[in-house]
Amino acid sequence: MKRGKKTEDAAADEENDTGSASAKKTKKAKEPEAPILYEDPPDKMTCKDGREANMKITSWNVDGLRAWVKKNGLDWVREESPDVLCLQETKCAEKSLPAAITSMPEYPYKYWAASDEKEGYSGVAMLCKTEPIKVTYGIGKEEHDKEGRVITAEFPTFYLVTTYVPNSGRGLVRLDYRKTWDVDFRAYLSELDIQKPLVLCGDLNVAHQEIDLKNPKGNKKSAGFTPDEREGFTKLLESGFTDSFRELYPEQTNAYTFWTYMMNSRSKNVGWRLDYFVLSSSLLPGLCDCKIRNKALGSDHCPISLHIAV
C-alpha cells in the first residue's frame, strides 16, 4: 500500500499563551515525544482447547519481490521457517522470478499469480513445504482475476487463501471498484467456508478500527480507512470470520504492519495495521497466536505469522 500519511497538525500541540511577546520568545520548545513501539510478545504455542500448534503460516507484503530478495528477505524466511509462506505485491511476472526463490529447497511447492496486463503490478505467491491437495487462482471473476490477486490452496482440513486486496488509490479513484471487490470476494470466501473452514491472509488494505492506525482523525478520507472500506471488512467478519489478532489482543495499541517510507514513519511507529489472518469461526479453538514481526525489514510492510492447530 502506498500513500503519504498526513502529518499531525502542530497547532494542536500549542497552548494558549497570554503572556508578553518577550515571554513567548523565551518559551522553551516542546520536547518531541518518544515513539511508542510495539513489542511482539513471546509466541504462544498452545491453543484454547489445549492442543499444540502444528502449523505456522507467514504472510508478507514484500513491495516488489526482486528488491525484497536483494534486501535479504529470504534470510528472514529461513529463520522464521513457516510451513507456508504467502507473499503479496510481488510485482513480478513468473518469467522474471529470482532464482534465489524459485530454487529454494525448503519450499518445493511454489505457486505464483501476476497481473495479466501490467508488468510490475500487484501479484501474490504461495510457497509450501507440503503439497496442497489443490491450488486455484482468482475468484472466478475476470474483472478481478486479471490483476493476479488471489491464490487458494486446499489442505486436508482447511483452505488457505492469500490475497492482495485492491488499494482505493490516491483521491479514492478506485473506491467504487474496491467496493465491488469487497462484495465479490466476501461471496467467494463464504462459498469456500461452506465446504471447509478457511484461513485468509494478506494485505487487506484496510485499517478496521481507529485502534488500527496511528492517526485516525487525519485519515478518514484516506484510502484504507474510509467508512466504505471499514464497513466492507465489518461485513466480512459478520459473515462468520474472525480477525485473529484482535481475537487474541483486543485492546493492543500501536501494533502496525505498514509504515510509509516518508517522514521516518517506521522509526516513529506512525503506522497502519493492514495485514491480517482472518479465520473461519470454526477454526478459533485451534488458534494459538498471531504475530506481528515488526523488526523484520525489507519492505514498507512487516511480516505476520500465525500459529494454529489444524
Brief sketch in words of this structure:
The chain is of the alpha+beta class and 310 residues long. The chain has helices at residues 21-26, 65-70, 73-80, 99-102, 142-145, 175-195, 227-238, 244-248, 265-268; strands at 55-61, 84-88, 109-113, 124-128, 134-137, 150-154, 159-164, 198-203, 241-243, 275-280, 287-292, 304-308.
Descriptive overview:
Helices cover 23% and strands 20% of the residues. By secondary structure, it is α+β, with helices and mostly antiparallel strands. Helix 6 packs parallel to helix 7. The protein is globular and about 60 Å long. The chain has one domain: Endonuclease/exonuclease/phosphatase (Deoxyribonuclease I, Chain A, 4-Layer Sandwich), CATH 3.60.10. A 6-stranded mixed beta sheet has the order 3-4-2-1-12-11.
